[in-house]
Amino acid sequence: MNRISPSILSADYGNLAEALKLLTASGADMVHIDVMDGHFVPNITLGAPVVRCLRKSTALPFDVHLMIDEPARYIADFAEAGADRITFHVEAKSGIEETLDAIRAAGKEAGLAVKPGTDISEVYPYLSRLAMVLVMTVEPGFGGQSFREDMLPKIRALREECARRGIPGLDIQVDGGISAQTIAKAAAAGANVFVSGSALFGSPDMAAEIDRFKKLADAAQA
User: Fold this and answer.
1) Selection from 30, 40, 36, 39 nearest residue 50 by Cα
2) pLDDT of the residue at 140
3) Which of 29, 34, 63, 171 is catalytic?
4) Could you confirm whether 175 is annotated as catalytic?
5) Domain range holding 202?
6) How many domains does the chain have?
7) Facing residues of 175 across strands?
8) With CB atoms 3.0 to 4.6 Å apart as the test, which of 10, 24, 147, 171 could cross-link to 132 if both were Cys?
9) 132-136, strands of its sheet edge to edge
10) Tell me: the pLDDT tens digits for 12-71?
11) Which of these is catalytic: 37, 77, 175, 205?
């Protein structure tokens, strides 16, 4: 199933509660929350206390993307704050097994992300423990970047590896430059969860745009 996870990185941070209500009314499947620490990526966004406050404004699943150096230290905080799925980077300093154990202990779903310069095979040893792999189609840290088509082979290779391992339904998420002009390419390569920020929050009719995105992704996989 193709799902849309709008990124609140592109929302008005002074009106996040209203943004979440809009996402709920517009048919979003989950909410993508980018957490940046200013070290792993050169930007700072928000932390667990803000996620806890946001949790009051929607029942949509929270898809929390930790772009931080030591994710294992903060898993419990984000789980308690209301995260449903917690994704961290294979390039982070925390041990991958340690971080996955922390997510499992918190009763949450785990995702593992890779930057554009990281070989996708880095996630293969952990696929059986994951609900999702996030393939970054831009360099992480800032919204509004252009989609990198050179990431499509990574998505294809990952989908093929999932099939080979008997887990064809594993979610493959793409984040970066997803719009009506790029979503079909990512879907055809094997992605099924799509993060989009500026293309959705900049649309005059978010509900219509989310519906359009899903139809384009479905058609690309037909």
Assistant:
1) 36
2) 80
3) 34
4) yes
5) 3-221
6) 1
7) 136, 195
8) 171
9) 3-6, 193-196, 171-175, 132-136, 109-114, 85-89, 62-67, 31-36
10) 999 999 999 999 999 999 999 999 999 999 889 999 999 999 999 999 999 999 999 999
11) 175
